[in-house]
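Task: sequence design from structure.
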């Protein structure tokens, strides 16, 4: 089969997995704890939440108004549902909610905290006035409508500190008592004519007393939750700082181990070359195992340093440069050819010049890991096909296919996790670090590349890397 066809021909019983480059980065800088009282983002979220809740209320009022205008039932008459007040209130709230939503459309900025506070308080005040109108027409003293104020009071306790939620409670109490007081001055009507004029006010004061108790309990609970959130945020910040410090220490220690392992490997090669005299056969076997283990540990150290540098926020961003993917592939194939020959694997390239703009070190890491995996997980005498084709607007598509052990379908989504190896992979290649595809994942995310994996157990695996014409970002330096 020609090389291009070998790259493009579908494998039977394929399992396909696509690594989306839009996913969030795996690691990033630590986040500082923020205040949960008047944090700008929280203010914006609360104001937007009020807008969404208000649309529900507006819808209920509009439906009730439409029903009252066309459905004359005793139930509706008992609730005083008149389209003359329902529909105007719904229309007014809808118009104001559109204005609120327009003001909240922009993402919040630090300097907009004062504006967000004002907007949120305007929403609360308008809502309470509109609610007072609704309660007045439903019955301020002869129905359970006044308890609808509790929705705002409880939400205020959840969203605001105790003092600010108390302001909302006092405002609701003032509006309710003013409504009842004005109604009493107008004089009782109907069955209420025989009731003492002071009775409605006493009932309203009882309602307000219940609100005060509910505010006290709800604000205490909400404050306890906020305090616990702050404690958890502070503990999380300390934990993240500790993890970052430990990671930096581990990276520094790992980097310091790189040179000693390189020196050990070089001295082992001198011993095997007979520089220090001939070695007994048993000693040669032991030294060769030492060399293999030393080489594996050196590779793991290299992978750890590369992965840590990719995720480090302190690294400078290297600029992208013009390069030819075909030339980069050719150099990688030439460097890995001895490894392939030692494993009895043949590499069949089909390389067409494909100029792109990318970070060369990052693209080299991706190519190196994909091709190394293809060689390491091939069977003896297997074939690894490497393809490269240009795409429109200086993009490229790179394919690496092998005829090796393949990947079980259920384990396919996990192959890009740090240190993850399937049992089959660990048995076939015990020296693998489990970090190669994690490096590929981070580079593709940083560079905005698309990576697709097609695999079938026992038939091989094919990686298809699509390099966009204009990468989203060039990422961070990762070559130690």
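Answer:
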């Amino acid at each position: 089969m020609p090389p291009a066809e070998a790259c493009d021909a579908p494998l039977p019983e394929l399992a396909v997995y696509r690594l989306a480059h839009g996913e969030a980065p795996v690691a990033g800088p630590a986040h500082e704890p923020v205040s949960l009282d008047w944090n700008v983002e929280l203010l914006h979220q609360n104001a937007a939440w009020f807008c969404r809740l208000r649309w529900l209320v507006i819808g209920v009022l509009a439906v009730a108004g439409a029903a009252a205008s066309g459905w004359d039932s005793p139930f509706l008459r008992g609730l005083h549902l008149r389209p003359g007040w329902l529909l105007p209130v719904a229309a007014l709230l809808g118009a104001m909610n559109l204005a609120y939503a327009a003001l909240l459309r922009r993402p919040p900025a630090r300097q907009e905290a004062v504006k967000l506070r004002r907007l949120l308080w305007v929403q609360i005040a308008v809502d309470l006035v509109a609610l007072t109108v609704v309660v007045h027409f439903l019955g301020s003293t002869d129905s359970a409508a006044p308890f609808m104020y509790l929705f705002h009071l409880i939400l205020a306790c959840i969203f605001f500190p105790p003092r600010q939620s108390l302001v909302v409670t006092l405002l609701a109490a003032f509006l309710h008592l003013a409504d009842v007081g004005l109604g009493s001055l107008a004089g009782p009507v109907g069955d209420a004519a025989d009731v003492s004029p002071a009775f409605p006010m006493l009932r309203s004061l009882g309602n307000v007393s219940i609100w005060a108790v509910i505010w006290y309990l709800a604000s205490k609970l909400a404050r306890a939750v906020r305090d616990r959130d702050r404690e958890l945020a502070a503990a999380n910040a300390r934990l993240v700082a500790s993890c970052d410090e430990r990671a930096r220490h581990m990276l520094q220690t790992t980097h310091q181990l790189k040179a000693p392992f390189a020196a050990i490997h070089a001295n082992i090669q001198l011993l095997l070359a007979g520089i220090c005299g001939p070695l007994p056969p048993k000693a040669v076997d032991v030294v060769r195992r030492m060399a293999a283990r030393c080489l594996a540990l050196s590779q793991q150290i290299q992978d750890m340093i590369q992965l840590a540098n990719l995720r480090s926020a302190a690294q400078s961003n290297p600029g992208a440069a013009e390069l030819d993917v075909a030339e980069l592939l050719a150099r990688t194939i030439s460097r890995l050819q001895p490894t392939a020959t030692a494993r009895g694997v043949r590499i069949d390239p089909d390389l067409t010049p494909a100029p792109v703009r990318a970070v060369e070190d990052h693209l080299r890491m991706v190519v190196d890991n994909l091709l190394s995996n293809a060689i390491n997980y091939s069977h003896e005498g297997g074939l690894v096909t490497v393809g490269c084709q240009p795409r429109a607007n200086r993009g490229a598509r790179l394919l690496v296919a092998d005829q090796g052990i393949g990947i079980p379908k259920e384990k396919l989504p996990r192959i890009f996790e740090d240190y993850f190896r399937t049992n089959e992979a660990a048995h076939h290649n015990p020296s693998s670090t489990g970090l190669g595809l994690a490096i590929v994942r981070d580079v593709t995310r940083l560079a905005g590349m698309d990576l697709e994996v097609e695999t079938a157990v026992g038939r091989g695996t094919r990686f298809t890397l699509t390099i966009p014409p204009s990468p989203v970002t060039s990422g961070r330096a990762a070559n130690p």
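DSSP finds 13 helices and eight strands in the chain.
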